[in-house]
Amino acid sequence: MEGYIGQQWIASSLYDRISTRPFLSLVDKKWIAFQLPRALRDARNRKIPHGDIKSENILVTSWN
């Protein structure tokens, strides 16, 4: 039996995004602050452990 997993290519971490220009706007910062706790809650509810949460390990899908 063969199986495949498809996954979106994500080239940037949150660390990359916050340390390069143009810097995040206030709206972008608020959006991340809104999404991040929910993502962590959802992972916890699904019993998906992480153990190393830091900006380098948080992937972002777009810069705008």
Automatic annotation (TrEMBL):
Domain Protein kinase, residue spans: 1-64
Q: Which organism is it from?
A: Rhodofomes roseus
Annotated keywords: WD repeat
For this protein, the record's InterPro entries field holds: Kinase-like_dom_sf, Prot_kinase_dom, Ser/Thr_kinase_AS, Vps15-like
Q: Which residues form a coiled coil?
A: none
Q: What is this protein called?
A: Protein kinase domain-containing protein
Task: Give the GO molecular function terms.
Answer: ATP binding; protein serine/threonine kinase activity
Q: Which GO terms describe its cellular component?
A: late endosome; nucleus-vacuole junction; phosphatidylinositol 3-kinase complex, class III, type I; phosphatidylinositol 3-kinase complex, class III, type II
**For this chain's UniProt record, which GO biological process terms are given?**
late endosome to vacuole transport; macroautophagy; protein targeting to vacuole
